[in-house]
Amino acid sequence: AEWLPRKAENLSPSTMALIAKYVARHRLREPRLLDTIGCFLLRRGESLDSKVIQKLVFPFSRMNYRPSNHAELFSKLESILEQKAGSSPLATVNILMSLFQLRHFPQAALQRVFAPAFVTSVMSSPYALIVRRYLSLLDAAVELEFRDYSGPRLDPRYRVLMFEHALTADEANRKYRSELRSPGCGAGACQSQPGANPDLVLIPTRCRSQSGADPDPCPLSADFLLWINRSGTVLPLSRIPAASKAPSSHASLAAVSLRSGVLALASDL
What we know:
The chain is built from 13 helices and 4 strands. The protein is mostly helical. Pfam families: FAST_1 (PF06743), FAST_2 (PF08368).
């Protein structure tokens, strides 16, 4: 953190990308490191390849950290995305996902990636499926987070699910075993959600029972709140049905208490 700000001017983009990768991998939420990466990106952004930009932006979204120059930096990234959107589609979509996680929604860039010409251009590429997945996530994020967006949306024909079905515990263990060994895995997932504040996300803890048995996950902490309607669609908290906000007099005391608790938690979040 002391060395990088002094040496950043003389580092090559590939070296800075390696440093950014290390910072992101080890979740080094050190402002001096992250702000230096932000300054480097602002100074050299126009001359960088989209794939390098994606690597430099990733630490910010991984730890939900806005660099000190974020207003100027985000504006610069928007103009770069508009110019280079088609040169590296996968990198472009990754950069947009990072900006969404930082609660910044570049409308012009979104219009480019949701345009039929952009989507058609990636359908025959070897990374078509992963781009479609990311575009599907962006489309869902637009629905939940960017209600004022008025541009094109992803054609339903190209939407894909991240998972074909709900994962069972055994499947999740097989698929993500290396990550599940880390006690911070759950918090990492929560920190990656659009709009999440990592300073408010609780690291999963384990508590030992009075009998001295093996520790179990502590059940008394909540990391995030989702509101889901009867069809299973996740809704913004602003769209909680009025009936839930004002339960009828016939509702049971337990139901009233539960709804009050949900609304109080929503207000706190």
